[in-house]
């Protein structure tokens, strides 16, 4: 029926297609584990189940809300509509202060309590991450 060359070409195309599909699947699977979603406090109040996923919550640090006890920092992130309590153990960045923008990365315990594993504040006083600016702009 078909010659040897046609069979080899067909086998090569099938093998190439399968390896491409497998490669794309593996890349997407590895990226899925490293994706971190950004949410504002208002988004956290509206979302479904996110307890086991790592997320980032951004907003402004509420005035007079920072409490430092030993090596643990407790504060409130607000988007001027909703608030979420955050706890963090570790070294806080120099730019972290009340009334400034902050992005905290960690896990959600419930809709009003967040346990941060990182505090991201690697910007100068005038810079605000675009996601935070957009979330605050929508709620003002």
Textual characterization of the structure:
The chain is α+β, with helices and mostly antiparallel strands. The chain has two domains: 1-34; 37-139, OB fold (Dihydrolipoamide Acetyltransferase, E2P). The protein contains three helices and seven strands. A five-stranded mixed beta barrel has the order 2-4-5-7-6. It is elongated. The termini are far apart. The mean pLDDT is 84.
Layout of strands and helices, then pairs:
Elements lengths: L3 H31 L2 E3 L1 H6 L7 E8 L5 E3 L2 E7 L4 E7 L11 E10 L2 E8 L9 H10 L1
Comma- or semicolon-separated keywords:
140 residues; 34% helix; alpha+beta; five-stranded mixed barrel; 2 domains; 3 helices; OB fold (Dihydrolipoamide Acetyltransferase, E2P); elongated
State the secondary-structure class.
Answer: alpha+beta
- How much of the sequence lies in strands comes to 25-35%
Return residue spans where pLDDT drops below 50 for at least 5 consecutive residues. none
Query: CATH superfamily assignment of the largest domain?
Result: Nucleic acid-binding proteins
- CATH uppermost class of the largest domain: Mainly Beta
Q: What's the order of the H and E elements?
A: HEHEEEEEEH
The shape, in one word, is elongated
Q: How many domains make up the coordinates?
A: 2
| Major beta sheet summary | 5 strands, mixed, barrel
Strand arrangement across the biggest beta sheet? 2-4-5-7-6
Average pLDDT works out at 84
Distance between the termini: 73 Å
The name CATH uses for the topology of the largest domain is OB fold (Dihydrolipoamide Acetyltransferase, E2P)
Radius of gyration: 23 Å
**Counting H and I runs of at least 4 residues, what is the number of helices?**
3
In helices, the fraction of residues equals: 25-40%
| Reported CATH architecture of the largest domain | Beta Barrel
């Amino acid at each position: 029926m078909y010659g040897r060359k046609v069979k080899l070409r067909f086998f090569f195309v099938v093998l190439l297609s399968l390896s491409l599909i497998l490669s794309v699947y593996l890349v997407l699977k590895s990226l899925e584990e490293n994706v971190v979603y950004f949410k504002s406090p208002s988004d956290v109040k509206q979302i479904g189940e996110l307890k086991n996923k790592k997320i980032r919550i951004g907003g402004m640090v509420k005035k007079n809300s920072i409490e430092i006890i030993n090596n643990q920092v407790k504060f409130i992130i607000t988007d001027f509509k909703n608030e979420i309590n955050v706890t963090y153990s570790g070294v806080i960045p120099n730019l972290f202060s009340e009334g400034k923008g902050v992005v905290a990365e960690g896990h959600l315990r419930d809709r009003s309590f967040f346990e941060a594993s990182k505090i991201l504040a690697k910007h100068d006083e005038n810079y605000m991450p675009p996601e935070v600016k957009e979330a605050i702009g929508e709620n003002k």
